[in-house]
């Protein structure tokens, strides 16, 4: 199974990440993320990432993902939802990877996919997804 997948529905970029990550995996993810996001650029958009199957990464992925977050916010990412079961170690590394001030972007973390979708729909970024994304990815 690949380390990640990325696709767009309406104005939402969806990603699923899996396994342990190296700096090479993080760079490949950044490339795939930016490619998938191309149709969203020029207007506000949202992102949801599934992290339950992600097994953390080496410390050298942190500046790479931090740079991607900065790029996304500077390209009008407005809402960012992380979906994963509570995990303090995962939360620690995720917090280290993201810029401390996301400016115009609001980030929330959810244990349940349905809650993340409800929030994105509430702020104007619904999708037509009928099935949970982790089952379709």
Walk me through the topology:
Blueprint: E1 4-9, E2 12-17, E3 19-21, H1 23-37, E4 45-50, E5 54-57, H2 62-74, E6 77-83, H3 88-97, E7 106-110, H4 113-122, H5 133-136
Helix pairs in contact: 1-2, 2-3
Q: Could you provide a short overview of the structure?
A:
This protein has 137 residues and is of the alpha/beta class.
Can you give a write-up of this model?
Helices cover 38% and strands 27% of the residues. By secondary structure, the protein is an alpha/beta fold. The protein has a single domain (4-136), classed as STAS domain (Transcription Regulator spoIIAA), CATH 3.30.750.24. The strands form 2 sheets. The protein has a 5-stranded mixed β-sheet with strand order 1-2-4-6-7, sandwiched between helices. Strands 3-5 form a two-stranded parallel sheet. The chain is globular. The mean pLDDT is 91.
Instruction: Please give the share of residues in helix.
Output: 25-40%
CATH architecture: 2-Layer Sandwich
Number of helices: 5
- The CATH topology comes to Transcription Regulator spoIIAA
Overall form: globular
Give the CATH class. Answer: Alpha Beta
N-to-C series of helices and strands: EEEHEEHEHEHH
The parts where pLDDT drops under 50 for at least 5 residues are none
The strand order across the widest sheet is: 1-2-4-6-7
Q: How many strands in all?
A: 7
How much of the polypeptide forms β-strand, as a percent range? 25-35%
Biggest sheet layout: 5 strands, mixed
Distance between the termini: 10 Å
- Average pLDDT number: 91
Query: CATH superfamily name?
Result: STAS domain
Q: Over all CA atoms, what is the radius of gyration?
A: 14 Å
**Could you say which structural class the secondary elements and strand pairing correspond to?**
alpha/beta
